[in-house]
Every structure is written in structure tokens, then in C-alpha cells.
Amino acid sequence: MKRFITNLIDAFKAVASPLFDVFTSRQSSSRRKDVTLQVESLEDRAMPAAPVFTAVAASPTQVNLVWNPVAGARSIIVDQWISGAWKQIATLGATSTSVSITGLSPSTTYYFDVGAYTANGLEWAPYKSVTTFASAPPAAPSLTASAISSTQVSLGWNRVSGATNYLVNQWVSGAWKQIGNFGSGTSSCTVSSLSASTTYYFTVGASNASGTAWAAYKSATTFANTIRVDHPIAEGTYTNVNGSLFGSGGPSYLDVRQGGVGDCWLMAAFAEVAARAPTYITNMFSYAGTTVDNGITVSLYNVRFYDNSGVVRSVLVDTKLPNGGGKYAHPVNGTLWVALAEKAYAQATGLRYVTSAQTGTSAYSALNGGQATWALRAITGKSASFFSIDPNNIAAAWNAGKFIVLTSSTRPASQYIVGDSASTHAYAVVGYNASAGNPFKVYNPWGTDANGWAPGTYHNHAVYGLFNANAAFISQNFIYQAVTTAPGRDTRATIEFRFEYSESVFAHKHRDDWYMM
């Protein structure tokens, strides 16, 4: 019997020798696997037992190996195939049955083997391959959907950690259709070209290489075609004005051109903010589509202000202006933002969102005379106060990034500054250069020509439109300065006036005496 078995093994070796060479080459000489067949009686020695194991990915960076207990094992060896060779990565106790391999790379295939040492030697299981997971998919965002016009829906969502982009889908003809793909920093979009009085369904998905997690879908119904827009009481007839909201370079203080109401305090504030931080102006407006008013298609804008508590308030305005923009703030070169913001402020004061001399009255006349602090707070949400004129403090406020509006004296030293015993005028500080002889750059909201003169005349003589001044000139011609907290440091605190002020704080010069058709 023993001879028969010996002959049988010799014959098997002769046939299988080439196959053993391939196998031992794949396994590498470092595998320490004994492939020599021992010609012994089966009764003389039992072959060492090999573990049976599994390799399972547990995460993008971890693999778990699990094997059966090996009878008579003295230790368990774990190898990993690294750089073309097997490398021992763990020596474990005889009773161990698992190990976790960590610190791996996502979406990568690894090879492992498990061997058992017994009294008879080391026996290896067949090696296993396993691929780690890709990076973890992001969480699903939260979605909001709201109609903003008869043709538009605004979508907003929270940004999700791990998302590389956001996919926006719309339910179209019984299926979800992708209509947008936005970067990781985007958290909103506007869907346009929709139909009036129609319900639409949307969803947004946070996506990365591992997949996409979708928000619960939301619906929104667009407005009817006809939208009622309230117009503040005004002199003249409202007619539509065509133009662009902003010029090619965005909002500019040079866009401000005050008209026939004494709201220089508001116009100077618009100029100041446009000069120093134009994003406040751009963020005031959101396009709301169009509507048809008496057969004329007009554009719609939501205009945002802050109330005295710092709460955002919005009013809807169209592009109809009194006398086509010829009565109040004048669109400069077809730029509409100043005229629309003035109109919106008149509406907002009627709703008691913002402060004017006639809060609660929706009329341009309610803007006649006021305080720049009211306007600066409404535009920026930042608290503001009046202080007695001090060029040193103006320079410090400018360097701190604060918004500054000046109030002229009732008895200015220069005839080129607007102001008299009847009323004062507001100016915006639009520049400061400490090294210049005339460091302060000041803008009159009546506007300026190329030579720095305001259009028209005041008391039959020209006045400055845009000019540079030194500290002495500022002190001799201005009485108060309105100053906000610095951008980014808004305390939202209510600032009380700490001095007695005269009626001259209420600046209200208007342009009836110079306006020319």
C-alpha cells in the first residue's frame, strides 16, 4: 500500500511540476510556503492545517480579515502584497481569528494572506483581494423652493460637508431631469423661463465620487401674470423706464443724481455705500421677472432693507418711475438702481420698515428732509450716529472701513458748498489719501460733470459736485458727520445721540432750482 501511494505521488509530481513553478512564482519566494511533497506514509504525519479567511472592506481606509480557528496553531501570520513582494504586517496569538488593517487609501485594491504556524510548519491560505470603499458619500441637503415672479422660482439649500458639487433636478414629463450642476460653494439658484400660475417640483443632490444624496423634493407655484405693484404717491405720471440695473462696472457713487425732493441724506448714503462697499448695493436687489401693467411689460425687483432691529425687509418695485425718471432721482446713463432704491425706500417707509421724516406715509414727499443715519442703517444694517465735525475722526473712520456722510453748515465758508440758514445738505466721503495736500474726496449727490461741478446752479452760482478738501475746509463748511460701525463688526446696537442737535441735522436740499429738461 505504501509503495502504491509513493508511485502515485511520483507520477503526480512529474505532471504537475510546471504548475507548481507558476504557483510558487505568484506567491513569491518570500511566502515561505513549503511546496515540496513529502513521500511518507499518510499515517506517519498530518499536513499543517491552513486557515480559511475572508477579506472585507469596512470603510474607505479599512479592511477586516476574519479566519477560522486553527487546531494546534502556535501563532497566526498576516502578510500584505506590497511593491511586488509579500510583507509580514502582523504576528498574532494562536487563538486570534480577526484583524483590522487601517490607514489604507479609498478605492484601492489590496492583497492579503493569512498563515498558521503549527508543530508541523507554516501553512498559508489562498490569498484574497479586496477593494476599499470610495470616499464616503455626503449627507442629503435641505431644500427650499419659492416663487419670486410669474416666471421664476428661487431654490436654496444648505452646503454639505464632503460635497464636491450640487445637482439640481426638475420633474419634467414624468421623470427627473437635471437642469443644473453647481460647485461646492453654491447654495442657491434661480430657475427661469417658467410659466405663470404653474406648480413645479425640484430636488437638489449633494454629490461626490461616492454618490449623490438627494434632498426631499419641494414644489413652488409661480405667480399669476399680473402682479400688483404699489407705487408711492408722487408728482407726475408713472411711466416705464428701460435700462440696466447697474452699469458695466457695477454700482458707482457717480450713478447718484438727486432729483426734485429733499432726500440728499438718502442719496448721499447710497453714494457712500456704493463708493466703499458696492456689494451692499448689489445685494439689495434681486430680479423678480416681469409683469404686464396696462399692456406694458415692466421689470420687477425685490429691494432689501434692514429695519431698526436689523431684520431684513423687502419691497417689490417695478421699473415705472414718475415722469419716466425725470422728477426724482435721475437714471444716469440708463442705470436704474438709484431711482429704484429711492422708490423702494418711499414704499418701505410707508410700511414702517425704515425711518423717514414721515414714517408710515408711502410717498416721495415723506423723504423730504431726514438723517443720513437712518439711510445708512437701512442700507447696511449697521448702527450709525451723528458726531460734531472732526477731520481727524473722519480720517480714522475711513481707515477703519466705516461709512461717512457729512452735513453742511448753515453758514458754509465757501459759496461752492450747498447750505444756508434755511437748510443744510448731505455729502458722501468717497476717498481719503493721507499723503495728499487735500486728502478728503467728497461727493455732492446732485452729481458732477467732468470738471467737478454739479449740474445747474445754486443761488445763481455753481457749486462743487466732486472735490478734494483739506481738514480746514471740512471744518469750515461742515457741521456734522454721520458714521456707521465698520463693515463686519456690526453690533446691531441702538446708538442714542449723545449731544443736542439743531434742526440742521435734517438735511433736505433738493434740486428744483437747478433741474433742467
Give an overview in words:
It is a single chain. The chain has 517 residues and is of the alpha+beta class. It has 3 domains: 2-131, Immunoglobulins (Immunoglobulin-like, Sandwich), CATH 2.60.40.10; 143-221, Immunoglobulins (Immunoglobulin-like, Sandwich), CATH 2.60.40.10; 238-505, no CATH class. It contains 7 helices and 27 strands. It has helices at residues 2-27, 264-276, 278-284, 337-350, 372-380, 391-399, 471-477; strands at 53-59, 62-67, 75-82, 85-93, 98-101, 109-118, 121-124, 128-131, 143-147, 153-157, 165-172, 175-183, 188-191, 199-208, 211-214, 218-221, 238-240, 285-293, 296-306, 312-318, 320-322, 384-388, 404-408, 426-432, 440-443, 466-469, 478-484. The strands form 7 sheets. Strands 22-27-23-24-25-26 form a 6-stranded antiparallel β-sheet. Strands 3, 4, 6, 7 and 8 form a 5-stranded antiparallel β-sheet that branches. Strands 11, 12, 14, 15 and 16 form a 5-stranded antiparallel β-sheet that branches. Strand 19 and strand 20 (312-318) form a beta hairpin. The radius of gyration is 39 Å and the shape is elongated. The model is unreliable at 1-9, 11-46, 488-505 and 511-517 (pLDDT under 50).
Task: Name the assembly state.
Answer: single chain
Major sheet details: 6 strands, antiparallel
Structural class: alpha+beta
Q: What separation lies between the terminal Cα atoms?
A: 126 Å
- Helical content band: 10-25%
Task: Calculate the mean pLDDT score and round it.
Answer: 85
User: In which order are the strands of the major sheet placed?
Assistant: 22-27-23-24-25-26
Coarse morphology:
elongated
For the secondary structure, the number of strands is: 27
Radius of gyration from CA coordinates: 39 Å
- Low-pLDDT stretches: 1-9, 11-46, 488-505, 511-517
Share of residues in strands: 25-35%
Count of individual domains:
3
Number of helices: 7
